Amino acid sequence: MRLRALPLNSAPYPLHVPKVEAQDVWRILKGSGVRRLKFIIVDLHGRPRGVSFGIDEARRILEEGVTLDGSSVVKYAEVHDSDVIATPDLSSVYIDPLSRSAWVFCRVEDPPRAAQLDPRLHLERTVNKLWEKGFEARVGVEVEFFLVKTENGRVEPADTGGYFDLSQPALRVAEEVEEAAEAAGLGGSKVHHEVAPGQYEYNLPPSDPVRAADSFVFFKHLASEVARAKGLRATFMPKPFWGVNGSGAHVHLNLLSRGESIFGRNGRLATEGLYCLAGILKRAKALAALAAPTVNSYKRLVPHHEAPTRLVWGYSNRSALVRVPRYRSIVNRIEVREPDPMMNPYLTLAALLEAAIDGLERGEEPPEPVALSAYSLATADETPPHLAAAVAELEAAYRNLGLSDELADTYARLKKIEWSEYVEACGSWEETWDRITEWEYKKYL
Question: What is the 3-state secondary structure (H, E, C) of the chain?
């Protein structure tokens, strides 16, 4: 189960709750049978990095924080100034039901340059800005993934099923993934086969953005461990197989003011919701480098297969970049379909919130909603064609997404290296955009 510890008074955003003592958290964990604590930071790629302590030694670390070599974590620090301190966030402790251990997410606090490059701290500061403006965000994520196996040196789907197929043996593995997530306190989710062979989905229930991002990272760990125990691999690679649906990480976003959603009114988007939606659409090209951050992401972002390539929106329209769910005439959120499971959730959610609020404050108007397939709109603006183009869009507009100069520059340089490595190994995009390369399998699977 997930430990329901309350946030510290010193949390970067003003949650008005009693202070939680590190020693109380430690006693609860030890009393629950936890043997080891893993203190987690997240790098710019969105990957968890951490250190493991026995439960008794971890008592001191919960109070004092973790020291680490920041030069050995992607771009956190230079070798000549690499002593970094990360402080445990006692509001984000997850007990791993697959082992007698727990994850404790941390925020980087010293030195200041490393703190500026901490994606989690960046999201916390964005949420704090929303609080100061009188808004609370609620975020849910649909996490799609493939269960795969390797046969004769080739990566293959673990089954041949399609949407809502109940006959596939791999469905039981997906059910065990969901059971592990529920046991960890992430929340229960429906379990069903997605459209492509071997493809499944887990729905992270709505929570505040930092918890949603933490849960996203922890879920990917759980899914990988459950699949490995069954002789399979859970891959979050956006497009492991050409010619079928890829995997998205669709973000469901709701903004509240005084406890009430500002999005819905009388079965349609309210004016405030339209402004927020317009802010996201207007900045979607720059968002792509964060939401779809890999070379492989842009093999998912091609027309058809429910991939959002047109910068349009619509009610109940899964071909649009932003869908407005409307069940039983109720509208209370928007679904941004651009992100995929390889995203850094902290950077992506922060950018989405910045874009939405900027659109709201500027009173930006969206285009008319699209009622037909977006793929039929020949004149509609489109997502960037590949990673290099997305990075160029980000470099031109990162301030509109709330990124600092240093954070944007560091992230862009990483992605330019990734693109260069792909081109050098595989050839030009024009020659390789319609096939999945061995380089991609080695890097992203």
Answer: CEECCCCCCCCCCCCCCCCCCHHHHHHHHHHCCCCEEEEEEECCCCCEEEEEEEHHHHHHHHHHCEEEEHHHCCCCCCHHHCEEEEEEEEEEEEEECCCCEEEEEEEEEECHHHHHCCHHHHHHHHHHHHHHCCCEEEEEEEEEEEEEEEECCEEEECCCCCCCCCCCCHHHHHHHHHHHHHHCCCCCCCCCECCCCCEEEEEEEEECHHHHHHHHHHHHHHHHHHHHHCCCEEECCCCCCCCCCCCCEEEEEEEEECCEECCEECCEECHHHHHHHHHHHHCHHHHHHHHCCCCCHHHHCCCCCCCCCEEEEEECCCCEEEEECCECCECCCEEECCCCCCCCHHHHHHHHHHHHHHHHHHCCCCCCCCCCCHHHCCCCCECCCCHHHHHHHHHHHHHHHCCCHHHHHHHHHHHHHHHHHHHHHHCCHHHHCCCCCHHHHHHHC
